[in-house]
Write a structure and sequence with these properties.
This is Lipid A biosynthesis N-terminal domain-containing protein. The longest helix is centred in the last third of the chain and has 31 residues, at about 80-109. It is elongated and about 70 Å long. By secondary structure, the protein is mostly helical. Helix content is about 90%, strand content about 0%. Helix 2 runs antiparallel to helix 3 (about 55-75) and helix 3 runs antiparallel to helix 4 (about 80-109). The protein has one domain (about 20-109).
Length: about 110
């Protein structure tokens, strides 16, 4: 059992300490930004007492997704690159739709 803990400690050290560089830090910052969109969505929904997707959700998605894409490109991970790359189109499209809706409302007023 002690050997298992030693192997696990070595693995954690190799993954989280030995590999720590600016790219890994960017990856963690990007993941935090990307995850913040769920916190924003949850808080907005709780305040409205219904499911809400605020504009900040899409900005966190775009910012975090872009940084994660840069990280994935640097790491040369094709699955991560494809996933984040496709997601960016959805985030941009939603922000575009929101902007168009605001323009239409402004014209009516």
């Amino acid at each position: 059992m002690a050997d298992l803990f030693a192997q696990l400690a070595t693995w954690f050290h190799d993954v989280f300490v030995k590999q720590l560089d600016a790219w890994v830090i960017l990856g963690f910052v990007a993941q935090i930004c990307f995850s913040m969109r769920f916190v924003v969505q949850w808080i907005a929904s709780e305040r409205a007492r219904r499911s809400v997707v605020p504009v900040a959700f899409w900005f966190f998605s775009l910012g975090g997704g872009t940084m994660l894409l840069v990280y994935a490109i640097q790491r040369e991970d094709p699955v991560f690159i494809a996933g984040q790359g496709m997601g960016l189109f959805i985030y941009i499209r939603n922000l575009w739709l929101i902007a168009n809706e605001k323009k239409a409302v402004t014209k009516v007023d």
